[in-house]
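Quick question, first post here. What does this chain look like in 3D?
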Amino acid sequence: MFTQPLLPSGRRVRFIHEFHGVYFRSGYDKLFLDRALYEPVFPVFEQDGVFFLSLEDLSRIYSPDLLVQVEGGRIRLRFQKYLDTMERVQIDRQWYLREVPAEEAVLAVGEPLAQAHGEWIELSAGPREIGGILYLPAIEVMTKIFGARTVPAKNMTVLTFYEDLTFPLVLWRYYSSVVRGRTCGEIHRSFWFEEGRRVIPYHMYIPTGYQPDTPNKAVFYFHGGGGNESRFYDQSGQKAQLYAEDRGYIVAGTNGYILSSFYGSLVPIIQTLDVLDPEKVAYENPEGWPEETLLLRRLAGLSMERQFEEIFGRWNLDKENLFAAGNSAGSVACMQYVLMRPGLFNAICPTGGFVNYHFYDLRQFAANLAPRHALFVCGTEDEHGFDYVMRGWAEMDRLGIPYQKLVVGGGDHPSGWSQVTDRIFDFFDSCLTK
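> Answer (accepted):
Ran it through. Tokens below.
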């Protein structure tokens, strides 16, 4: 049997980052998924101009769309080709991609033929079993059987389903620096999230002064809905990298797994203040989401835990000087981690958002942070509701909770915070544990 669908409904959820290309490099046993380095479970190898990738890695890279069944020496593949350019539909606060038909193919170990579309397709090499590991000629399988195309560039080959994908020289130079052992500046990496059956990319900035044997202060950034792991860097106009380098911060751009993930939170956003009556709804699920939405929220929360494990395991971070910033839905993440994971962050900077305080214990929130270790930022032209954020601040004032706030005159919802990036880093500096 094929692997069961990720979701009970069988629908294909829209992930935060849909990969556009898989980049193979001659003489290199790893891969790149867009900009992110992917370290295969089993190394890639090239023979007679053919790239061989393990069946395990091929299924991970295209998960959850590529399903695999192995019986003896026969390999059956079932592939549903989804692109982020496809029509989307929102159901119960989650975004899904329009359903598409699946294609199937059968290959046999050692045979340079595949059966698909009711015909035999000739390959230059067949699947191989080496040391008990099954390898496939990945590029030919995806192009000749499932309709992908290749984009050649220098010593690399890009495998893609996007007609407009090109290969800019700056990208090749970045890849080359990674191959040479890049250890500082912008670092794009990825890891396999087993529970969510997805490769998750994340985006680091490592200052040149980083010393692996010394704990380093760090900022975690939680993007908003529709954003991705690179939003902090891009939306700030590279100021995030500038100040991180100048002040010696590691920055971790995290990935929310799916659109509308809210990083696992079920606490409503502040815009529901006048809509949800806490006396008439279930406190554990105030917006009444169905089980599938709850499942996706749980997976989104778990994906963040796995990202913390990945980042903490790879870089030496100072657990006494970790900070969080996040815009919109990311502001909810900042606040929920203070409540759910006290002590994880020394200070937080939520921007362009606030939680519905009827379903959130602001007093406990304050108890889990040092006084004034929360800086709230919002622009006066925030189209999602500057007035709502001010109501959140007013509730903090009513409860006598110490905090800081920064109003950005003329600032909008997506980028108002970016105009005061320097002051956000000033705030983190002021909260450092000496």
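The mean pLDDT is 96.
The first helix runs from residue 55 to 61.
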